[in-house]
């Protein structure tokens, strides 16, 4: 990968690229984590579904950030041990696809590891990996350069149809591409938001309709699988990304991404929820719907299965 203006080479040691051997998880590394802001939090499906933006007229490309308030910065739930085991396996088997660490990000990553109370790690492990092995969230460090905010280091084990290697070093607008409407709508607003961030996090949610619950999904689907009406409750999942942003040190922020996913049957547990979701399915425009992976054929099957 070519380097970008203002960027220094990838994590190096004595002039050479350091090939850090994978480190197996230990009981200490998967212990419960205390967070600086709030207490260890748990958001089960009954909680996070109600945080989704289900206004069919709302533009899907919007910032939608809110103050975190007294909510926990990061959340842990019953999937914790399983998801940390998946991270460890990916860091061993797909290391170059899920981890990008630079030497000049060490200071920010060290502070991030402190914020998540990451346990001590073997010598040579980059602190962003140490932090990432301690939490369910994916972690992205962004640096303020003269040209704006750029993705500089990351441990990304649950991508939703994007490749880390294609985004590192890029301006945040490129990181969010290709998303129609992103650049012209909110690039300037995002830069301004990032410039104003403090150590008090803000958060937002993104979500998609999926038929595959694999956490590591970097590839875009050639076509969406059509689920018939009789199977939509069990075979269609909402994949939600709980995203937070906060400053770590001067000119560095962390963007956290926590994927949470459940089937429609597990989520639409009340009449109010079902009606709200059906209203979105029925009334969202084809253009807005496809950005959440809703095709017109699937819309028809969903309405037949849910009404």
Summarize the structure.
The protein has 307 residues and is of the alpha+beta class.
Number of discrete helical segments: 13
* Count of folded domains: 1
Q: Number of DSSP strands?
A: 9
Strand order, sheet with most strands: 3-7-8-9-5-6-4
Overall residue-averaged pLDDT value: 84
The major beta sheet can be summarized as:
7 strands, antiparallel
Which range best describes the helical content: under 10%, 10-25%, 25-40%, 40-55%, 55-70% or over 70%?
Answer: 25-40%
Strand percentage, roughly? Answer: 15-25%
Distance between the termini: 50 Å
**Which value, in Å, is the CA radius of gyration?**
20 Å
- Going by helix content, strand content and strand pairing, the class is alpha+beta
Runs with pLDDT <50, length 5+? 1-40
Order of helices and strands: EEHEHHEHHEEHHHEHEEHHHH
Shape: globular
């Amino acid at each position: 990968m070519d380097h970008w203006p203002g960027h220094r080479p990838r994590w190096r040691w004595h002039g050479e690229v350091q090939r850090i051997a994978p480190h197996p998880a230990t009981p200490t590394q998967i212990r419960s984590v205390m967070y600086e802001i709030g207490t260890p939090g748990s958001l089960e499906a009954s909680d996070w579904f109600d945080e989704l933006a289900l206004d069919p007229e709302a533009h899907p490309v919007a910032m939608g950030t809110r103050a975190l308030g007294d909510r926990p910065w990061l959340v842990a739930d019953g999937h914790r041990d399983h998801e940390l085991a998946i991270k460890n396996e990916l860091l061993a088997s797909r290391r170059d696809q899920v981890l990008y660490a630079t030497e000049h990000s060490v200071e920010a990553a060290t502070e991030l590891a402190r914020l998540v109370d990451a346990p001590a790690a073997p010598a040579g492990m980059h602190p962003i990996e140490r932090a990432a092995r301690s939490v369910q969230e994916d972690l992205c460090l962004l640096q303020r350069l003269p040209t704006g905010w750029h993705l500089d280091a990351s441990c990304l084990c649950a991508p939703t149809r994007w490749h880390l290697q294609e985004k590192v070093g890029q301006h945040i607008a490129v990181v969010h591409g290709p998303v129609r409407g992103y650049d012209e709508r909110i690039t300037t607003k995002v830069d301004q938001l990032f410039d104003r961030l403090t150590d008090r996090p803000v958060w937002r949610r993104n979500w998609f309709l999926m038929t595959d619950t694999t956490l590591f999904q970097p590839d875009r689907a050639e076509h969406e699988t059509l689920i018939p009406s009789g199977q939509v409750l069990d075979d269609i999942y909402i994949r939600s990304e709980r995203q937070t942003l906060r400053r770590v040190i001067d000119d560095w922020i962390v963007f956290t991404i926590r994927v949470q996913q459940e089937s429609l049957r597990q989520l639409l547990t009340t009449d109010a929820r079902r009606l709200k979701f059906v209203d979105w399915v029925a009334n969202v425009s084809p253009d807005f719907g496809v950005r959440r992976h809703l095709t017109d054929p699937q819309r028809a099957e969903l309405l037949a299965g849910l009404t």
